[in-house]
Write a structure and sequence with these properties.
19 helices, 485 residues, 2 domains, seven-stranded mixed beta sheet, alpha/beta, D-Maltodextrin-Binding Protein, domain 2
Length: 485
């Protein structure tokens, strides 16, 4: 099993610096690129810039001749995510006024819409891409090897970047670097805990809820229309006013890894979710819905707002979610929220993830695309992305230098007390990579797993039965794993 987020070289220094340099902390991302239902909308940036330069020649210096250039940057995310990314790009065009950047926000069906754009020769120059898709497209020659840019750049090198934020499809071939480092945590409405007479969730991994404690807390926070909690013998599970917890069901590997399970074996030749440890963890997630009635089913979730709105409306008391949700939580004016560490089944674990920014081979302006890429990578240029809670930095020095840590991880509403322990420290010490970093043919594999798990979430079958049944079918699609460097 792939463990550790790859930050061993900076962990001790980073933690000591953060203890000295900040009082609270922060972050972003999205697993799927399927946020919201708003239409795809292209926004024109400032003006325009340089010549057509091959990737191998893309250094850090500005070209001598500033011919106008227009780039297209695609991305997904909530309205707040859209706002802060567009602000960062606006600052880029102000710095380089000969470069115009048209932003294209694609809130749902992201990969499908990019595929449609490719068929009509309207591909972006640069943009976010789901990690598994980026690795697949890179192996097909559809995106640039970022190592070609890094090799010739005087401003940034591969050694400056957190290892766990990079997607390699072959040794020495880098499809992209995360827009941000991300990890999971427990977010909650403080008033819900106060009203229930409960202590606030722990923030340190050594003090994390056991799974049994987590379930009991969720039961005490789940209320029916008459105000009875889920431990009350008269509780009505068909008339719930406030759920104790909600979580993105695609993130079940948080439970699987904490329970000692795996997705595939080290070689990527054997499907391991059907093993008892993995199936048990997935069943425990499903039991939150169907046994304890403390989490909404997929059907019920359709009627519950997401993220900050779920907590502020008291439809939900806790959310187990990625730290990118801080951008919305921090902006919610009527929400008094807190942050806790993820609960533990058998061992401490939190999934680290993030989707890469890539440069598409269709671009006629690889050098300018790399200039924008570097700009988005450097928090000095995009500080609102970090202070808003949307992104955590991908450059090591932003965890090692006390002054830099203080710029983004302290003194802002997106980083409540406990963030440092619950997110940053837990990610460093107990993080494990999302499957998109290493499993080949993941989209096809998930197209088999997801419908099977849907039946588990709906309570129509057990996790063990569902996963055992699909194991032969999944193993026909296993193609191995990608390299880690």
């Amino acid at each position: 099993m792939r463990k550790t987020v790859g930050m061993a070289s900076v962990t001790l220094l980073a933690l000591s610096v953060m203890m000295a340099g900040c009082g609270s902390s922060n972050g972003n991302n999205g697993n799927s690129g399927t946020t919201g239902n708003s239409e795809v909308k292209e926004t024109s940036g400032n003006t325009a810039s340089t010549s057509n330069t091959p990737a191998g020649n893309a250094g850090g210096e500005e070209p001598a001749k500033h011919d106008p250039v227009t780039l297209k940057y695609t991305f997904w995310g909530s309205p707040n995510e859209k706002k802060v990314q567009e602000a960062a790009i606006k600052s880029f065009t102000e710095k380089y006024p000969w470069i115009k950047v048209n932003t294209l926000h694609i809130p749902d069906s992201y990969t499908t819409k990019l595929t449609t754009m490719a068929s009509s020769n309207q591909m972006p120059d640069i943009g976010l891409l789901n990690g598994d898709v980026a690795l697949e497209w890179a192996s097909q020659g559809r995106i640039y090897n970022i190592m070609d840019f890094l090799a010739n750049d005087p401003d940034v090198s591969v050694n400056d970047i957190l290892p766990n934020t990079m997607y390699y499809w072959e040794e020495g071939k880098l499809a992209g670097v995360n827009g941000a480092l991300e990890a999971f945590a427990l977010f909650y409405n403080k008033e819900a805990f106060t009203d229930a007479g409960l202590p606030l969730p722990p923030t340190k991994a050594d003090e994390a809820y056991t799974w049994e404690q987590f379930v009991e807390t969720a039961q005490k926070l789940t209320l029916d229309q008459k105000g009875r909690n889920a431990l009350d013998p008269d509780f009505d599970p068909k008339s719930i006013k406030q759920f104790g917890v909600t979580m993105p069901l695609w993130a079940y590997m948080n439970g699987v890894t904490s329970n000692g399970g795996q997705f595939v074996n080290e070689e990527g030749t054997e499907f391991k979710l059907a093993d008892p440890e993995a199936a048990e963890a997935i069943q425990q997630w499903a039991d939150l819905i169907n046994k304890y009635h403390v989490a909404p089913s997929p059907t019920q979730s359709k009627n519950i707002p997401s993220g900050a709105n779920a907590l502020s409306s008291r439809k939900v008391a806790m959310t187990l979610d990625g730290q990118w949700s801080l951008v919305d939580l921090g902006a919610a004016k009527k929400l008094n929220f807190g942050i806790g560490v993820t609960p533990v089944m058998k061992s401490k674990a939190t999934m680290t993830l993030g989707e890469p920014i890539v440069i598409f081979k269709d671009t006629k302006h690889p050098e300018e695309a790399w200039m924008l890429y570097k700009w988005m990578m450097n928090p000095e240029n995009t500080l609102e992305l970090q202070t808003s809670g949307l992104w955590m930095p991908v450059l090591k020095k932003w965890y090692e230098n006390a002054d830099l840590v203080a710029k983004w991880a302290a003194g802002n509403p997106a980083h409540p007390d406990g963030y440092q322990d619950a997110v940053m420290r837990n990610a460093f010490d107990n993080g494990f990579p999302n499957t998109s970093y290493y499993v080949k043919n993941l989209s096809k594999i998930n197209s088999i797993i997801d419908p099977a798990l849907e039946q588990v979430w709906l309570g129509k079958t057990t996790a063990q039965e569902a996963l055992t049944k699909i194991k032969p079918q999944v193993e026909k699609e296993l193609k191995g794993v990608y390299t880690e460097r």
